[in-house]
Design brief:
Helices cover 67% and strands 9% of the residues. The chain is of the alpha+beta class and 211 residues long. A five-stranded antiparallel sheet has the order 4-3-2-1-5. It is elongated, with a radius of gyration of 22 Å. 27% of the residues are buried.
Amino acid sequence: MKVNLGVLSLFVALVGVSSFVFLVVAIATDFWYIIDASKLERSPNGTDALSSHSGLWRTCRVRSECYPLINPFWQENANITDSHRQLLYMHGTFVILMPLSLILMIFGGMTGFISILARAYLLLLMTGLLFLFGALITLTGISVYIAYSAAAFEEAVCLLRSKDLLVEIDIRFGWSLALVWISFVAEVLTGAVFLLAARVVGLKRRREQAL
């Protein structure tokens, strides 16, 4: 089957831009982790504003203002428990990995644009590998965030006096994390298409050299 490089170029541009936009929106929004305590809030002895949603940088109470999460790089976090220190390390890890993946996508977009115009085999190959490496970083960041959320949940369970309250609270991942998963898939697809484009250019050059 003959693969048209122009079609590949258009497809990789659309998928690559989509991956970038999804990741930017995910990083900028605060719906990675949602705590819905509306059942407790409606109860006779309930407390207002228990529900919240959080992102990479801050936590927001429903019908209230947002406040930033603890800075994981703050040097004065010495007087904390080991479990809290581990949470800070995990927080600092995914806070670095997600923007790093974004930066790699920007570089990949620039090299990809040049490589498509120049029909450069090595540059196409390098761009494909760069996007796949960025996708690996994104996946690592997602994995660390999920592990961080699980560890934070366990810490909260230990601090709660009554574990029966958890039955009344709905805790789930939000649509911001779903956007990161979509961005990851699009990033992998972008890298794979760049590698395919490199193969197409390489085969075309071999045919021309054979003639």
